[in-house]
Amino acid sequence: MVNNTQRVLVWDGLIRLFHWGLLAAVAFSYYTTKTDGAPFLFPIEVHAQAGYIIIGLLVFRVIWGGVGTVYARFSHFLYTPVATAAYTRSLLARRAPRYASHNPLGGWMVVLMLVSLAFQSLSGLFLSDDIFFQGPLYGLVGRDISGELATLHAFNSDLLLVLISVHVLAIVAHQLQGEHLVAAMVTGIKRFNHPPHDIASSNFPKRRFRAVIALLFAVSVAGWLWFY
């Protein structure tokens, strides 16, 4: 029996590290808002540090989304409203093609989540609890603006939970359809019975220098905030 399965290396190692690192940092950030202490002496400090890591990861993702490997680039998986609407119609009709990278709806969901995470982590830099914690940029805005940002910070945290829930439901839906997205984010490889709609002619050119620059810049930003 002939096996016509096509293996496509979609997610490079840095994208996979980014994804799981972001998941861990967001989980820590969420946990430290729900615990009264243990195992941390000052959960708010750990919460802030998780935010600094998230900022560093987002800086890397933005850079890598511009100069990284093919499937990681925003230009590869962000589609026009017309194309996105056409994909949505085909999805509802159960005729949607499979994509190596994010499909049109998934691509815009990624952007929404990144923007929401960026606002959440950046707004946290200006907050203070007036007792144990003061964000590194709190002095730039003062109490009134910080209070407004705190309100938006709380609202956006609820929005983030909604976006994450939709993301998880989408993963489950794809899993039920035989598309193993979690495994692909571990191995980097997706399997297709037919060539994906967005197959790239050239996947992973050598980008070591760009990778090093992106990583150094991201680590520098996160480190500066951590030790500020």
What is the share of helical residues? 55-70%
Listing every helix as H and every strand as E from the N terminus to the C terminus, the arrangement reads EHHHHHHHEH
The number of E-state strands comes to: 2
Q: Give me the Rg, rounded.
A: 20 Å
SSE class = mainly alpha
* Count of helical stretches: 8
Taking pLDDT < 50 over at least 5 consecutive residues as the criterion, the unreliable ranges are: none
Share in β-strands:
under 5%
Oligomer: single chain
Describe the protein's architecture and organization.
- The chain is mostly helical.
- It is 64% helix and 4% strand.
- It has 8 helices and 2 strands, in the order βαααααααβα.
- It has helices spanning 13-34, 43-67, 74-77, 81-92, 104-123, 142-176, 181-187, 208-227; strands spanning 6-9, 189-192.
- It has a two-stranded antiparallel sheet.
- Helix 2 (43-67) packs antiparallel against helix 8.
- The N and C termini lie far apart (62 Å).
